[in-house]
Amino acid sequence: MKKVINLLVVICISVPLFSQNIDQALFDLEGVRFEKTEGTSTNYTLYIKQPLDHWNADAGYFYQKVLFTHQGFDRPTVMNTQGYFVRPRANEVQQILDANYLNIEHRYFGESIPDSLDWRYLNLKQATADLHRINQLFKTIYPGQWISTGISKGGQTTIFYRYFYPDDVDVSIPYVAPLNESIEDKRIYKFLDTVGTKECRAQIADVQLFLLKNKEDAIDRLKWFAKGQGLTFDYLDNSLEKAFEYAVLEYPFSFWQWGHSCEDLPHGNELDDYLESFISIIGLEFYGDQSMKLFAPHYHQASLEMGYYGFETKRFKKYLDVLDGNPNASFPPKSVSYNYDNSLNKKVMKWLDKEGNRFIYINGDWDTWSATKVQVSKKVDALSIDLAKTDHGKARIKNMNQEQRQRFANAIEKWTQLAVDFTPLDR
């Protein structure tokens, strides 16, 4: 009789889990508001109540935006650990695993901003605690395998999340994710001095020199462009010249990051040709006030603990009038005093080297950020897949060759017992 009772208890516990309605399941989650996407039965926008300080409830709270797709209570779940704003885009990992999907906006971005913008609470310890809380909430309805993934700064977040909470997910898949050693990681300079061909690198330097040598005329023309675009530069001391010099120094970083062609580089003496290339590859918007405000949380994190890069200026120094030395590429809020601390990065690098198992790192070897990618240790069971001559935006599973896809699928099956179906990526 006792065995029969136990069996009935197991049935009562198990059956509702896989037969319940997802709306009811979401309703039962503490601190979760949700709305169904119009015209769909499985897509939702969630707003999850999060403590501003996960270790001090008195600090207040905010609501974190999550775009959610339900595929089935018996399916795996993919967390997309965004580094910035959340957007309703398809996710490769979710598609090839037919998984439930939590696309999570980063705190202090988009709609996930506290009423009081207290920068003390924007750090990796708090941001990863947000992810942990979401993970623990949804594991009550999704008991299967869990995978986290993210792109660029979102990929960095994936790495740090796994460091702080190593048991939350079965596999982590960071795309094009740097792990920087300092606020001005010097490995970037070596990359820019060696990537591609010598001829192409020389052409890029010639473009920069031409622009700087013709700075007065260039700025006169760019004034009209800036006015037409409604750009202001108060953050850079109301100096279009400072924005111009920064952008010229940024030109090679963006050129390689976003996969521009050496064949399209300007030649000759027509300034408009050079300005057209300048605007298409980097432009002035990146240094305008709107961009500075939008990405202030990113610059805050870079200057606080994540690290970033600077600009090597030796060959251009005589043509720079408002920038000195190796200017930093980070522009954090001026209201905060920063003292960069790389101790967390060092701990993470050491942990990855010895305990960073079940990671799949995806990088493009022509992406500037590959200069500071994670180097996979032989001590761990992890995989690094580098796509040849591929940039930041194209280093994706869909662009892997057959051998790389097979390695990817083998690792996923080994670590999760899940079958990978690449068909959705090839449609």
Can you characterise this structure?
This protein has 427 residues and is an alpha/beta fold. It has two domains: 22-181 and 345-426, 3-Layer(aba) Sandwich (Rossmann fold), CATH 3.40.50.1820; 187-319. The chain is built from 14 helices and nine strands. It has helices at 2-19, 22-27, 92-97, 124-138, 153-164, 187-194, 198-213, 215-229, 240-257, 271-281, 289-294, 296-306, 343-355, 402-416, and strands at residues 32-36, 43-51, 61-69, 77-81, 100-104, 146-151, 171-175, 360-364, 383-387. The chain has a seven-stranded mixed beta sheet with strand order 1-2-3-5-4-6-7, with helices on both faces. The protein has a two-stranded parallel ribbon with strand order 8-9. Helix 5 (153-164) links the parallel strand 6 and strand 7 (171-175). Helix 7 runs antiparallel to helix 9. The chain is globular, with a radius of gyration of 24 Å. The relative contact order is 0.11.
Number of DSSP-assigned strands: 9
Q: Would you tell me which CATH topology of the largest domain applies?
A: Rossmann fold
The proportion of residues forming helix, as a percent range, comes to: 25-40%
Query: Mean pLDDT, nearest integer?
Result: 94
Q: Could you state the CATH homologous superfamily of the largest domain?
A: Alpha/Beta hydrolase fold, catalytic domain
- SSE string, helix = H, strand = E? HHEEEEHEHEHEHHHHHHHHEEH
Residue fraction in strands: 5-15%
Radius of gyration: 24 Å
Count of individual domains: 2
Largest sheet: 7 strands, mixed
Computed structural class: alpha/beta
CATH class of the largest domain: Alpha Beta
- Discrete helix count: 14
- Straight-line distance between termini: 55 Å
Morphology call: globular
CATH architecture of the largest domain: 3-Layer(aba) Sandwich
The residue ranges in which pLDDT falls below 50 over 5 or more consecutive positions are: 1-19
For the largest sheet, list the strands in their spatial order.
1-2-3-5-4-6-7
